[in-house]
Amino acid sequence: MFRARVCVTTIRQLVQTEGIRCLRVHRKLSGLQRAVGAARWKSSAQQAPLLTAAPVRALADEQISVKGSFLPPRAPVTVCARMHSEDGDLWESFAHYNTNQSGSVNLTSDHSVGGSYSGCEPMGLFWGLQPASGGREGLRLRKRNMETPYTVHISLLQGHVSPSEEPITELAAVTTERWYMAPGVKRIEIRQNGLVGTLFLPPGPGPFPGMLDLWGISGGLVEYRSALFASRGYVSLSLAYIGHKDLPGLKNRINVGDSYFMSALHLLKDHRQVDADRIGIMGLSFGVYLSLRIATLTGANPSCLICINGPIGSTIKISDADGKIQDITGDEKYWTYGDEGYVSFQKLSLPANLPPESKVKIENITCPLMYIVGEDDLSASSKENADMIEDSLRSAGKSQLLTRLSYPGAGHLIEPPYSPNSRASLWSVKPKKLITLWGGHPAPHAAAQEDAWKKILNFMESNLRW
Q1: Residue from 96, 271, 412, 445 carrying the catalytic annotation
Q2: What pLDDT is recorded for position 255?
Q3: Which residue among the candidates 85, 226, 285, 291 is catalytic per the annotation?
Q4: Does residue 412 have an active-site annotation?
């Protein structure tokens, strides 16, 4: 009996001892597996993963090359971009890639298999930026300070992940700067003769061609397109006409008229660094109506017009001979609302809904005109207005003046390339909160912006640098 107990006790001790040994072996194996997994993210030369961007500093309309190297072959990785707007809001994008056999990834030539975009999109990280989850509603990214860049942090993450996931393993990172003013460009605030604007001058004595730059009725002073024009060798005047503290009258009304816009043209023509015979006008949205209207005024004589998604007339009533406009809300009976309660102003600008007396006499235009249509424009009836322009010029025997571009899937806000699109954004807070629809699907809208910008610059080159 005693011997049996000894045997049982001995067996138990052996089992416990071997169990401990097995546990130790298991732990060693697990640690070895983890070490092997970590080692997999190093090259045979033991170099750490590397992420590069070239050039690191570039103009906002320039493409950059993002590459990852010294990674395991055929491994899943995520490339993520993050930046803060000037209001402090976080914007981010990400894309999933698989490294090639040599353990590298190149966003210029490789295809994303998921994330903010898919396919080969060299600048997808930039145009794909959207407000981070949990951010404020109705955001739209617009640069206000032209003398500082957007700083974009790009990181390389292990596996196919979302930036919001925890935990994530950052393998490498690089920071890029996106500028709107090239070195040597001068920015000059204009507050003279009642004008409110900003003048951008290219480096050098000139004389240079000039551009009058007009935005939509959401107002304020929008400078970034003008800054890019100056970076490309054009003196550009970004002009405010509504919604600016230095303009007369109520902030939400247009209290300037034709003489105001003619003064802006004369400011350009009289500038010693501007060739007075080579001045163009560009307008987006309501700025299209203003551009067309200015072009037909006596003495204006622009060399070319560039119009993006806007009307040939206006439901906004003109109250006096100077063209001062009192009410910017238009006729609310033409407002429509989507499923989310967002408002669309598209029907406001249908040619059939425009007062006949407001319509610009297109047949009186004498300079080359480029009209750009976003076929998913939810803010203006751009296609119908383009049709009217085309018909009017054809009837006047001036078809040769028109260059018409049309982009499927593009929305209202066709801006300089690689700008993130907002399909909808906050329009007003008072007297009631309104979020307005702009339209546009990310990839086709981005493609439209890139193609349109090239063609805009070529159009300006042809008509302002002869």
Answers
A1: 412
A2: 86
A3: 285
A4: yes
